[in-house]
Write a structure and sequence with these properties.
By secondary structure, the chain is mainly alpha-helical. The chain has a domain of about 110 residues: AhpD-like, CATH 1.20.1290.10. The protein contains eight helices and no strands. α1 runs parallel beside α3. The longest helix is centred in the C-terminal third of the chain and has 36 residues. The radius of gyration is 17 Å and the shape is globular.
């Protein structure tokens, strides 16, 4: 187990442009041409597998920008996943996005510190409970499923699972890669 206070060397840092294969160049160009506009964060280590990068970034583009799950609830699910996996880069990107989407600072702070939130809307509480059970128990109980189904419908429940799974994939990749935070950024935990 690593010492969280130690500075760890990034295992899969950015690759030099001249060292990229044709497949890596193609995958990177497709990502840069999309909504993200740059190769950063999880996509840096994923570039080692350009086929996985290409498929993952297309899934992520849908889940982040086009999913039927309302953006505020998407960002809540992403923060819960980042906290679960203790993924600081993911947190760094999505805590501001969650705030912009309308999540209260007190809710974001509580998730970051691992404390139960003092207040949530009914929709937020449903997603909080659903994602919490999914990430901890790898399933959800019937009352939680029923609440999520009533809130999001079947497609939304499946997409909520997809959001947790996709951001879990990114978190695991970045945790193994030791993806560095930008200078001056800190994780809340």
């Amino acid at each position: 187990m690593s010492n969280e206070n130690a500075v760890e060397t990034e295992r899969l840092p950015p690759l030099p442009e001249a060292a990229l294969t044709v497949a890596q160049r193609t995958a990177a160009a497709a990502l840069v041409a999309g909504r993200r506009g740059a190769l950063f964060g999880p996509f840096v280590p994923l570039l080692r597998s350009p086929q996985l990068l290409d498929r993952a970034q297309r899934l992520g583009e849908y889940l982040r920008y086009e999913s039927g799950v309302p953006v505020r609830l998407r960002e809540l699910a992403i923060l819960l996943t980042a906290r679960h996996y203790r993924q600081a880069y993911e947190w760094h990107v999505h805590a501001p996005a969650a705030s912009q989407a309308g999540l209260a600072a007190s809710l974001i702070d509580a998730i970051g510190t691992g404390k139960p939130p003092a207040a949530m809307t009914a929709e937020e509480a449903t997603v909080y409970e659903f994602c919490g059970q999914l990430l901890q128990a790898h399933t959800v109980d019937d009352p939680t499923y029923a609440a999520a189904l009533a809130l999001l419908g079947e497609a939304g429940v499946v997409e909520l699972c997809g959001i947790c799974g996709y951001y879990g994939l990114l978190a695991l990749v970045m945790n193994v890669a030791r993806t560095a935070l930008p200078a001056g950024a800190r994780a809340p935990w």
